[in-house]
Amino acid sequence: MRGIDLRVARGEVFALLGPNGAGKTTTVEILEGHRQRSGGDASVLGHDPGRNERALRQRVGIVLQQPGVDGYLTVREVVQMVAGYYPHPRDTDEVLALTGLSDQADRRVRKLSGGQKRRVDLAVALAGDPELLFLDEPTTGFDPSARRQAWETVRGLAALGKTVFLTTHFMDEAQALADRLAIIADGRVVATGTPDELIGSGSAATRIRFRLLPSVEVPGRFGAHRVASAWELETDTPTQSLHDLTAWSLETATDLADLEVTRPSLEDVYLQLTAEEAAE
Amino acid sequence: MSDLALAVRQIGYENRAFWRNPPAAFFTFVFPLLFMVIFNVLFGAEAAAFFTPAIIVFGVVTATYTNLAMTVTIARDDGILKRIRGTPLPGWAYLAGRIGHAVLIAFLLTVIVAAFGALVYGIDVPWSALPAVLLVLAVSAAAFSALGLALSGFIPNSDAAPAVVNATVLPVLFTSNVFIQMENAPAWLDTVSHLLPVRHFADAMLALYTSGADASLPWTELGVIALWGVIGVVAALRFFSWEPRR
What we know:
The structure holds 2 protein chains of 2 kinds. By secondary structure, chain A is an alpha/beta fold. Chain A has 2 domains: 13-199, 3-Layer(aba) Sandwich (Rossmann fold); 205-263, no CATH class. Chain A has helices at 24-32, 54-57, 75-83, 92-98, 114-126, 144-159, 171-177, 195-201, 238-251, 266-279; strands at 13-17, 60-63, 132-136, 163-168, 180-185, 188-193, 206-211, 225-227, 230-235, 257-262. A 6-stranded mixed β-sheet of chain A has the order 2-3-4-1-5-6, with helices on both faces. Chain A has a 4-stranded antiparallel β-sheet with strand order 8-9-7-10. Chain A is elongated, with a radius of gyration of 24 Å. The two termini of chain A are 16 Å apart. Chain B is an all-alpha fold. Chain B has one domain (3-239). Helices cover 76% and strands 0% of the residues of chain B. Chain B contains 10 helices and no strands. The two termini of chain B are 35 Å apart. The relative contact order of chain B is 0.15. At the A-B interface, α3 of A face α1 and α4 of B.
């Protein structure tokens, strides 16, 4: 780690986004108390996570990357067992419903599918009704529908007023879930803000794309270029560019087929930022 | 719930998980009896007086030292220990649950072996020395549990666990009056085996089994076993790890 300066507000869903090896797990493990920091300050709910205090652990739920549950116990038994460690646990049936495990409640954990086991991890983290949840790559290895379900669960937690700190290397996940996020690369924060702010702040431009008859050329002033059978142009002033382009189209009676305007996605910003970091 | 109640509750969960794997449970109990039958076939029925207490020792060492070193290492590599470490459950309460369950299995094994020895080979259970027997069993179970936890700290990963554990325990069992009587052993080997705890456990059990009410409390043996227990606790505190090491 070379410099991570973050602040996560209560009730916020915060995503730490970065490529593999960027330091996401190191960061989250320092905050969870699983790893000692070599320098700097960290405060979690007013506690120093490095001191591994019970008072802090009573208020925090953790989903690690690796599952860690006894396979011979049933889902309900595992959740009940862990609930017993906390002073004010959440009702077990409620936890099972929240994680979509009600139908699997009496099955042994080792008989479950990979995605279901991952949900048991989440259920275990929720058993103590924590104020703050750490989710380390909660949907890695999920199929698309399981991911959507997991997202719904995280949104449900946010609706309950929980603070969620998640790491992910999926841009769409951060964009779908996070109120705020930080992008890290090579052990340091390269950008932080709301998803919209990050998209707006990047130099990645809005892209306009359309098709023309093969015989037609776009005038050079638009700065458009051919991409396969289509034309594309990037612009920081999309309204003006679109206005100029459609004006030209109407004047010359040239049809702009399949016209599409795309905002830069978080993915564009992310790829650009992490590429810049790698280039340095 | 108090921490002590949590520890006891943890024994219950360990126990439940244990019995849900019937083949593992079955062979845990049958394995020592197999050895007992084999030794009695090989060395004749008069050997039963030696092998009944010896196999009790084998059962207790297996159920505590071998079993804990292996299962705790596997649980560590599976991330179970790390997961527990992130909850408010005190680490000692979790480990007490594991040890408590191991000791429970050790005592159950002792009862089975003693009953088998009495019913099949006519080796009387030393009822008159029962308090001393229980004391030796309790101190030994505690010491070998501590040593098992300490050993797991030296096992790099769960794949290496069986090899490392067997390499530490089998040579000792063969030279500690458990599998083979040490009457004709070279003096140096006898001396070495007296430095280790299994020999003292085996000698104490044999003495209690053969002398019955006449047996005095085996203080020397208890002292050496307890000393090894302390070494185990200190080493466990120093080297035990909650994190997977892969």
